[in-house]
What we know:
The complex is a heterodimer.
Chain A: H1 3-23, H2 35-47, H3 51-69, H4 75-91, H5 99-124, H6 137-162
Chain B: H1 5-28, H2 36-112, E1 116-127, E2 133-138, E3 150-153, E4 156-165, E5 168-173, E6 180-185, E7 191-196, E8 204-211, E9 221-224, E10 240-248, E11 255-262, E12 271-277
Antiparallel strand pairs in B: 1-2, 1-12, 2-5, 3-4, 3-12, 4-5, 6-7, 6-9, 7-8, 8-11, 9-10, 10-11
Helix pairs in contact in B: 1-2
Amino acid sequence: MHRATALFLFTFGVLLVEPLLFFAIPFLGFHVPELGLIAVVYAAHGIRGSLARGAAASLGIGYLVDLFSGAPVGMHALVYVLVYYLVRLVFGRIYGRALWLQALMGAAASGASGLLVISIGQWLDPVEHSWDMLRQLPLQMLLTAVFSPPFFYVLWRFDRLVSYEVSEEGIFK
Amino acid sequence: MLLSRKAKDIIFSVLMLAIPVVFLFANIKEPHRLNALDRFVLTLSSPIHQASMYIYRWVDGVWRNYMYLVNLKAENDRLRAENGILKANNAILEIWAQRGREVEKLLGFKEASSAEMVAARVISKSFSPYYRVLRLRIDRGIREIKPDDPVIIPEGVVGKVQRVYGDYADIQLAIDPKVRIPVVIKRTGTEALLVGTGDPRRYTARLTYLRREEEVQVGDVVVTSGMGGPTGVRFPPDLQVGRVVEVHKQEFGKFQDAVVEAAVDFSRLDKVLVVVTPPPASEPQSRQGDAGFVREQPRVGLRPF
């Protein structure tokens, strides 16, 4: 199985249990780390490889996020594809496995994703999607940044199970 | 290949961006404004949507059931622990209630009798190799009781005080071979002397000096006569001693033998009464047997004082 396909299926499983897992953590409240988005960052920076396959995996993950979150179908799919390209563009030349780098990528992706989602929402329905939602963004970025390194590690462990290439390239090389 | 890898990437990237845009527009439009492409996209995405939501609901259901079971187990454990505590409390209350009933009974018996008695608690028991009680120790000492004082409970005769030292006293049971108690067979008024058999397996005593012509049956109730025995112990009259379980009628001689099983279960004793002053001697004189038999002068035992 290709790594991007495996990543998509694994993320599908993670997204299924994500709300159930974080439901048990009361202090998080409304905010949950965007594990789907972290998977997209991993696809862009950890797997690298074919641009098309990574983008397709991001599209699929975004589509699932739309389905499970109740957002208009296509919104997160579009945003995640854009984030995928952004991460490839901005962090594509940076090689390293430092935790701060993973956290930084997670926070940046979260910020970009939030900004895009709010912008598209504002454009689609200005009444329902307010710019006030931007105030939630820093906390969301922080949460995603905190959860990025451990989830990167989980994804890397899974990635290593399905592909021998993982030790040869990518963020953990 | 006609197209380079870079060109393919660009075309694919545009496609990857176009697909979600098409999906997004198809999904946000009002139903009456959908065009053919929108309807096609919705038709295409509907099974994926349904399958994904089915899996999601299934996982959610499994998780919720699991959480429910975990909570149920925790609740079950809590209730089990609570039940155990309540059972233990209940057992303690039962013991206290039983003790209360016993004390009440003892007190009632003590009040009703004209003899002066001291209540005592059994603090230890000596057992035979067959787990039969051989001797008791009570928590009354030299200031309240003295050797040879009769020891009784409302159900019957226990024995007599053997030794007193300090705040404790040893009780010799009525089934001990060294204890002799003047008794009467309640049904007939026949008098005899009860001597313990010392059988380590059973709580039994023997009726001696029972005249051969007297009619004794298995099941006859044996009670104290109220007379002083050869050892000087004088029990209050009409206290049950036991029941006849064996009768050995001799073909010759003056007396017959009978074995009596003790009325008191010595292994369950925890409170006793020590008779420190026997009742007045006139009491037994007016007593009658079950068959209306009027007792004659005692043939066995000593007249009280």
